[in-house]
Amino acid sequence: ATPAALVAGTGAAAKAGILVRDIEALERAARVDAVIFDKTGTLTAGRPALVATEALDGDGTRLLALAAAVERGSEHPLAHAVVEAAEGQGLVIPKARDIHADPGEGVVGEVDGDRVAVGSVRLLERQGAHTAPVEQPFARQAAQGRTVVAVSEGKRAKGVLAFADAPRPGAAEAVRRLSDRGVRVIMLTGDSAEAAAPIARSIGVSEVIAGARPADKLAMVQRLRGEGRHVAMVGDGVNDAPALAAADIGVAMGGGADVALETAGLALLRPDPLLAPAALDLARRTVATIR
Ligand code: ADP
Ligand code: MG
């Protein structure tokens, strides 16, 4: 028989916008003493807006059109921002072939016979591009707390695009509530340290791990668990699915609940960071009642 407290607990959870996979998930959530948050789309709105374009050859229009051509093949929030900006300016976006997204790095495609890469400097380097010319504009934009991506065409670096993404309402309060309960809070992001720092500061997170690829996110979860921590990983599932699956309890925020519950034990039906502490509280209360 299902304990009455679990039924009551999960009923309240569903009403609050929290889906629980099973009782094991609830029990693991009750023991959590470290919460890792993905940044983009989880602590921030995940709707970055393009705020600056720096073209090395002065042709910002061509830079944006080129980037939009390959970003059309990506589901990433940055990709939507690029395409939206290009369309908003009424640009003619060239056709791209062979588009390949590299999670946590960017996207590559072929435009007019050249490989075009949009993403991290690391990604451009892997495409054999000479990245030295974009280092200064990249650093200049990142120093303003912006997310920056570089663009290359063949071996030539073309310039950088910079984006701003606001913290979600409730992010700071969620961090405070968790900290008040003695939970260690960590921000984990594929973004640069410079872009992550101002956001972390504004929402009160002191521990930030930046430049993390999906595999690094996974390793971080495993390391904390190895240190004896009970880890919750909160992410949007865009490129943190392995980390969600490896955590003591994966918490998938927003998106399709069915898919989310396959890798995560908890799904938050609204993209509201406050549901994270609410879910942990609820788990603790419910488990305490059962015992
Ligand atoms: P987070 O870990 O904060 O959710 P992501 O891992 O989604 O961030 O992205 C990290 C970095 O990967 C971005 O800052 C960007 O440099 C690069 N990136 C990923 N996807 C794309 C894309 N479609 N276009 C451009 N850059 C991308
Ligand atoms: Mg993300």
Automatic annotation (TrEMBL):
Quick one: signal sequence residues?
A: none
Q: Which domain of life is it from?
A: Bacteria
Instruction: Kindly list any coiled-coil regions of this protein.
Output: none
- List locations, semicolon-separated: Cell membrane; Endomembrane system
| Family named by the database record | Belongs to the cation transport ATPase (P-type) (TC 3.A.3) family. Type IB subfamily.
What is the protein name given in its UniProt record? Copper-translocating P-type ATPase
Native source species? Methylopila jiangsuensis
**Taxonomic classification:** Bacteria, Pseudomonadati, Pseudomonadota, Alphaproteobacteria, Hyphomicrobiales
Q: Which residues of the full protein are shown?
A: 400 to 690 of 742
